[in-house]
Design a protein that fits this description.
heterodimer; A: alpha/beta; 12 strands; B: mainly alpha; Four Helix Bundle (Hemerythrin (Met), subunit A); 7 helices; 0% strand
């Protein structure tokens, strides 16, 4: 009996004030390809995003491989097996190269794979070391579609693939390649759920679903996909990816460090440190202000992931999204050494460590605040930083404690 | 003629506050010159304490409304949340502003970042500001209502902390003037003006909240009608 890869059971979802899906159920088994079609606003993307654990539900439950991954009580569990996801907005990080991005998707699927043949079929092999930001809209879409297919391509075991309008922006030859890949993966036993208007893809479907009723059909026979990846275990992926994102863009230097150095410069413009060397608390506050500033600027990786909804792509795949925890701690330490030399003219490893902890914990709090408003339609416009003054009191207490050391 | 309770209460509350201000300036006794750096500035207390009292009532309404929305999905709960957040912001700002003016005169500094009472009350006011501005920045929907109500619900934890702050960690903010034991005795004339202020502020925010609930109801009805015109319902 075929495995059930995806189940949506009695799902009710609101978007805005409307109920978009009401008591909706769907099951996708191994070797099936279901195509969701219908007019704009009918709820196709909502089904895909609900299946990817991205939308809160009023009622119902989502299961991957028969295990609950999301329910209306707000419980979210990591899927036991990786799945492919292509969102309507690509979900790419523009500062990454094609090679880096696709390798990261392979790593997330716990495999190694030579991407050359796939990139060649989509006409991207000559651009593999180019940054995604330098590609055309259609080429970016191809990268996003390949990312959605890779988890199934690498695996001998059935995997789930969710594609939201994969055809949009693709040229005719790429659509043909996509159709071939969908048929090969379906024949290999993977389950594919696609939302699309493009009738050319309807030929790949075993089931056509207009969100009210479904009709079965017999797709073309095809040789199954057989070019698998080599299993390779990976851990701490979110931390490693956060580090890589930062290293490739130097985003934390550009945002967090710059703000901290400006704070040091502004303080130096106001006071001559040697002239107030009897005011311990004040000088300690000056020394620990740069570490605090690093955190107050916010997590540089989180803000980078807001582009093209990459943050949602990551939220769907893992419980902890990539972050700059390591950088915030190290930056806190380094800038505290720097400011300590300027304002205190001493070297105390305890204060350096406290500076690192201030940088880390302030960034953590800011990240928590930012992520708590991710559900909102305009999460960048929500004034969440108004709540950050809560951090001043604990910082002031730490400064007083350090001054007594 | 239909009686508009909201407007009536607003006028009554406003009148009461004006009378309170007049009595605070002209009739209430002055405090001991020895006990304060700036005794005349102490009269701000007749504005500051009732505003803070009204803010706590508004925060409570915000909490109840948020809880009703989160647990019951009650539209009335959401209207209470909106009304509570607006009233909390108005009263919170009045209390913080008047406190800063008094602090500048009495302590020589308008704010102290190490005082727990000042910080938690300031944060409650910022929470109300976040809820009001944040709600205006988002399209109305289940996502925004859930998010803001959750903040309203958890933010209420600051209210009891603010209340006990001067009893447990008194740093700069004075201790309680009522219900704080022997040190909190207040002369009867002072207490009378303070009581009048507290009642007036309570009536004022009650009127404000009734009007706010009515406006939110109209907004929701307008949204439904617009959706009907768009053919989405």
């Amino acid at each position: 009996m075929a495995n059930t890869l995806l189940e949506l059971e009695g799902v009710t979802i609101r978007r805005g004030i409307e109920i978009v899906l009401s008591n909706f159920s769907l099951a996708l088994k191994s070797g099936q390809c279901t195509i969701l079609h219908g007019e704009n606003g009918s709820g196709k993307s909502t089904v895909i995003e609900a299946a990817a654990r991205l939308l809160p539900m009023e009622k119902g439950e989502v299961r991957h491989h028969s295990s609950m991954v999301h329910d209306s009580e707000g419980r979210r569990k990591s899927p036991n097996f990786s799945f492919g996801l292509t969102l309507q907005s690509n979900g790419l990080v523009p500062s990454q190269t094609i090679q880096q991005h696709l390798q990261m998707v392979c790593t997330l699927s716990q495999s190694e794979y030579d991407l050359t043949s796939i990139l060649e079929t989509y006409g991207l092999s000559h651009r593999r070391h180019d940054k995604i930001a330098h590609l055309s809209g259609g080429q970016q879409r191809k990268v996003s579609v390949i990312s959605g297919l890779i988890p199934a391509m690498l695996s001998k075991q059935p995997r789930l693939v969710l594609l939201d309008e994969p055809d949009s922006g693709l040229d005719d030859s790429s659509i043909e390649v996509l159709k071939t890949h969908i048929n090969q993966l379906r024949s290999a036993g993977h389950g594919i759920l696609i939302a699309t208007h493009d009738e050319r893809l309807f030929e790949c479907a075993t089931t056509l679903h207009d969100l009210e009723k479904e009709s079965l059909q017999e797709p073309d026979k095809c040789e199954p996909w057989s070019d698998f990846g080599i299993p390779k275990k990976n851990s701490f992926l979110s931390l490693k990816m956060g580090w890589k994102y930062n290293a490739s863009t130097l985003n934390s230097i550009q945002k967090n460090w710059l703000a901290s150095l400006l704070v040091i410069g502004s303080l130096l413009a106001l006071v001559e440190p040697l002239s107030i060397n009897d005011q311990d608390v004040l000088l300690m506050g000056f020394a620990l202000a740069p570490a605090f500033t690093i955190g107050l600027v916010g997590d540089s990786v989180t803000s980078m992931l807001h582009e093209q909804r990459a943050i949602d792509w990551w939220r769907a795949q893992v419980q902890t999204i990539p972050n700059s925890s390591i950088e915030s701690f190290l930056s806190g330490c380094i800038l505290t050494i720097f400011s300590m030399q300027i304002f205190l003219q001493i070297f105390d490893w305890r204060i350096i460590l406290i500076g690192g902890i201030i940088g880390f914990s302030t960034t953590f709090c800011l990240r928590f605040l930012q992520q708590s408003t991710l559900r909102l339609a305009r999460s960048n416009a929500v004034f969440i930083r108004l709540l950050t003054p809560i951090l001043i009191l604990p910082w002031a207490v730490i400064v007083e404690y350090c001054a007594r050391l | 003629m239909r009686v508009r309770h909201g407007e009536l209460l607003l006028v009554m509350g406003f009148t009461g506050i004006m009378v309170t201000l007049f009595l605070a300036w002209e009739w209430a006794p002055s405090v001991s010159i020895d006990a304060f750096e700036s005794p005349e500035a102490q009269r701000i207390f007749y504005w500051h304490v009732p505003a803070a009292w009204a803010a706590f009532i508004a925060f409570s309404v915000l909490f109840i409304g948020s809880a009703l929305w989160v647990f019951k999905r009650s539209p009335v709960g959401w209207r209470l949340h909106v009304a509570g957040s607006e009233a909390s912001l108005a009263c919170g700002l009045m209390a913080v502003w008047s406190g800063c003016v008094w602090g500048a005169a009495e302590w020589g500094t308008p704010w102290d970042w190490t005082d727990v009472r000042l910080n938690t009350f300031g944060l409650l006011t910022l929470l109300a500001l976040f809820l009001v501005l944040g709600r205006q920045s988002q399209p109305d929907g289940i996502e925004s209502r859930d998010t803001f109500s959750t903040f309203g619900l958890y933010g209420f934890v600051l209210v009891p902390i603010t209340y006990v702050a001067t009893r447990i960690w008194q740093i700069r903010h004075p201790g309680p003037v009522i219900g704080g034991g022997e040190e909190s005795s207040l002369s009867s004339d002072m207490g009378l003006v303070l009581l009048l202020g507290a009642i007036s502020f309570t009536i004022l925010i009650a009127g404000h909240m009734i009007m706010s609930i009515r406006i939110t109801e109209y907004e929701q009805r307008l949204e439904r009608l617009q959706n009907k015109v768009d053919g989405r319902i």
